[in-house]
Design goal:
The chain is mostly helical and about 300 residues long. It has helices spanning about 10-40, 45-65, 70-90, 100-120, 150-170, 170-180, 185-190, 195-215, 225-240, 245-265, 275-285; strands spanning about 5, 5-10, 140, 145. Pfam families: BPD_transp_2.
Amino acid sequence: MTMIFGIPLQAFLGQLLIGLINGSFYALLSLGLAVIFGLLRVINFAHGVQYMLGAFAAMLMLQYFSINYWFALILAPLVVGLFGAVVERFLLSRLYKLDHLYGLLFTFGLALTLEGTFRYFYGSSGQPYAVPPQLAGGTNLGFMFLPIYRGWVVVISLAACIGTWLLIEKTKLGSYLRAATENPVLVQAFGVNVPMLLTLTYALGAGLAAFAGVLAAPIYQVSPLMGSNIIIVVFAVVVVGGMGSIMGAILTGYMLGIAEGLTKVFYPEASNIVIFVIMAIVLLLRPAGLFGRDA
């Protein structure tokens, strides 16, 4: 049997795959957080709930409207993104001129309210959401057995991350968004609707969280607590990558997911804290994060 550092190759690669899957969710969620913070300067504590709303939206669409996974993968982010747009336009936008702490407190309160509402109607236990038939089963790679759905999650998450980065960094809309955060008065003088841009930015971040929620639904059970269980880790990922850094959020999400997975192989007792240990070390050596810009 092939061994790596005294560990069977199959066990090593299996944990590497788990780390890559977790990293896909970390990357998607931290990307949404980074987009919102980088462009709106809002620490969106409701991001975990928006992730949960995406999973619930997919499940409820299937239960009540027979909308399958593939349509839910498109519709659920749109629904949650629209909800996010309404929240930003009528509530969050009133706090922009105040201290950033007010935005954090508002989104934290919103998260508690929505989570409590779903716990009241659905309880704390999770509910299943089936893997789509086209992605059921797995394939034998020779050195390991790869579940097809988990491979799909890695590929589509990476595609979504790269697509979002290209949208923000390489398009005219992205340049407007970045300029609006630096000098909104000047941008508005050129006829650009800055408030609409900010609303679209928050909706994009919420939609990314919901997209991750739909992807997670067949792997983890759909539960009101699924967002609160992951959001603290995602905040750590964003801090390590650098607050507001789009590419930093993507790369750090995958790197820390893999680091967490490999820690389960070599030192399982530390797997739950390794990301926070890395965060502490990075903050000591580089307070702005690995890819952040020093103020």
